[in-house]
Amino acid sequence: MAAKIPPEERLTNLVVALMATDRGLTKAQILESVSGYRQRAESGTGADALEKMFERDKDDLRGLGIPVETLGDHADPNDLREARYRIPKSEYTLPDDLSFTQEEVALLTLAGTVWREGSMSDDSHAGIRKIRSLGIDVDEPIIGFAPELGLTTNSFVPLKNAIEANRAVTFTYIKPGEKRALLRRVQPLALVEQENRWHLFGFDTDRDAERTFLLSRICDDVKTTRLSFDPTLKVGAGERALAGLAAVAARNIAHLEVHPGSEAALRLARRAQQAPQGIDVSFLDLHIFADELASYGPEVRVISPDELRNQVIARLQAALARHQEVTRG
C-alpha cells in the first residue's frame, strides 16, 4: 500500500529539493530521493505513474508562480535526454538597493504567513518568496518552511485582539511532562513566530515575571478580562521574546548522526552545524524536537543529550506497539 504522503507535503519537499541544488536534479534522482515519490516507489508504484505524478506536480508549481527550470546537457543545452530540474535562487533574491529594517522584515513575514492563499496576487506570492530568502546564504538549501503554521488555533485571534486592546487574559496551559493544565493570568505583550510555531510573550501576574507560552499548549479558550495594563510594556516585547527564544535554543544542542542524502539530512541542514562526527542542531522544545526526529525513523540517530534520545526512543517504541496492536487486531 502506498505511503500516505499528502500532495501538499510532496510539493513542499519537491520545492526544497529543487532549491537545494545549483546543478539540478534528474527525474530519476527526484523520484528516488524526494519524500512523497520515494515512498510510492518503494511500495510498488510503477515508473510511468511516478513520472506522470512528477509532471503534474511540476506544472502545479509553475502554476503557483514557482519557476521550475529544465536544464540540458552541459555540452549541449538542447540535449534534454538527461534533463535536470532546479528552482533558480536568483528568483528569491531582492535587488541590491532594496533593504528592510528588522521590524519591517518581521511585519512582512507575519503578513506572508497570516494571509490566506486566495487573497494574494501572483506578484504578492513572488514578493513573499523573496522576503523569505533574507538572511539565508544563497549556497544553502532553503528549507524549514511549512505549508501550515497552525494559525487555525483558537487562541491566536483573541490574543492578538487582547494585545491591541491592552487587556489581560486567562487560559489553562499544560507544560511538557505534566499531567494537569494550570490556570495562567497573563498580560499579553507580543505574538512571535519561531521554528514555524506561534508563541505568546507576556507578563505572568501570578509568577510576577515575563513568560513565553507555546500557543499549541493552550488547552481551552482564551478569556479576555476587563483588567487593562500599561501599553508601554509592549515596547520592545517582540525583541525580548525572540532574544529569549534564541537563548533557549543556544542552550539546547542535539548531537545527531544523519543518513546522507536522506529527508532528515535535507530538512535539518539549515539548522545544523557540522561536528567532528555528525551534526549539531539547536532546538527550542525537547518534546517537539523529539516528535520531529522520531518521524525520520532510521534516517537519524540521537547521540546526545540523553533525555532527547530517550524521548525519541519512547516515541518509536510507542509507534511499534500501536502497529503491533493493529496487526494483531
| Distance from first to last alpha carbon | 18 Å
DSSP helical segment count: 11
Largest sheet: 5 strands, antiparallel
Strand order of the largest sheet: 7-6-5-4-8
Order of helices and strands: HEHHHEEHHHEEEEEHEHEEHEH
Helix content: 25-40%
Name the beta content range.
15-25%
Shape: globular
Structure, briefly:
This protein has eleven helices and twelve strands.
Report on the structure:
The protein has 329 residues and is α+β, with helices and mostly antiparallel strands. The chain is built from 11 helices and 12 strands. A 5-stranded antiparallel sheet has the order 7-6-5-4-8. Strands 10-11-9-12 form a 4-stranded antiparallel sheet. The two termini are 18 Å apart.
Topology diagram in text:
Layout: H1 7-19, E1 25-26, H2 27-33, H3 38-42, H4 47-63, E2 69-71, E3 84-86, H5 102-114, H6 122-132, H7 156-165, E4 167-173, E5 182-194, E6 197-204, E7 209-214, E8 223-228, H8 237-251, E9 253-258, H9 263-268, E10 272-274, E11 279-282, H10 286-295, E12 300-304, H11 306-328
Antiparallel strand pairs: 1-3, 2-3, 4-5, 4-8, 5-6, 6-7, 9-11, 9-12, 10-11
Helix pairs in contact: 5-6, 10-11
Keywords, separated by commas or semicolons:
single chain, 329 residues, alpha+beta, 11 helices, 20% strand
